[in-house]
Amino acid sequence: MTLVDSRPVLRIGPLLTIPNYITIIRTLAAVTLGIVALVSGSVALIAVAYGIYWLGDMLDGLCARWLGQETRAGAVLDIVSDRACTAVLCMGLVALVPDVSLVAVVFLPSFMVLDTMLSLVFLCWPVSSPNYFHVVDRRVWALNWSPLAKAVNTAGVIGAVAFGQYSVAVTVALAVLAVKAWSAVAVARLLARDGRA
């Protein structure tokens, strides 16, 4: 699939694809288990719910690429589903482990607002998802959607929390916030440059 050819790239669907089924199943499973964890007071279940979310998130992306089923609708579904999982699991974690509250205060608004807007901005260009934003701007892509950036942006924060390193988690979350703020300014300039603002 040629990523700059607007015909296949601008294809919205189909919506009923194997990767999208995986996205829906992992979201329902992670959110449901997160709520059960909160009600039962189980940090272990929150950890399992995070595992389902992350494994499912990796699996739906891999399947989309392997099966040639990457669509813009699937990318948006993935982005929205990530926010549903993160909102429920992060708030559940705060309720069960109040020491992570400061981490959540920094990380959650950054992920839910700035990262959501950045992740959806791919829709302004003829690319199939944020994974291909390097076609528009390599620096913004490298800082936000490259495999390394994806790992550090979320897993860095959650990994530090998992090891009880809350000050490290806050530091990583602040660094991610700074990257997202810089990226938002860069994307605003790209939109103006390309006449898409």
Q: What value does the average pLDDT take?
A: 91
Which class of secondary structure composition applies to the elements?
Answer: mainly alpha
> Helical proportion?
over 70%
Largest sheet geometry? none
Total of domains = 2
Through-space gap between termini: 28 Å
Which stretches of 5+ consecutive residues score pLDDT under 50? 1-9
Cα gyration radius (Å): 17 Å
Range of strand content? under 5%
What gross morphology would you assign? globular
**What count of helical segments does DSSP give?**
8
Instruction: Tally the beta strands.
Output: 0
- H and E order: HHHHHHHH
Pfam families: CDP-OH_P_transf (PF01066)
Family: Belongs to the CDP-alcohol phosphatidyltransferase class-I family.
Organism: Micromonospora coriariae
Transmembrane segments: 24-55, 102-127
Question: Please, could you describe this protein's structure?
Answer:
Belongs to the CDP-alcohol phosphatidyltransferase class-I family. The chain crosses the membrane at residues 24-55, 102-127. GO terms for molecular function: phosphotransferase activity, for other substituted phosphate groups. There is one protein chain. The protein has 197 residues and is mainly alpha-helical. Helices cover 75% and strands 0% of the residues. It has two domains: 1-96; 99-197. α4 runs antiparallel to α5 (101-120) and α5 packs parallel to α8 (166-193). The chain starts with 5 loop residues before the first helix and ends with a helix.
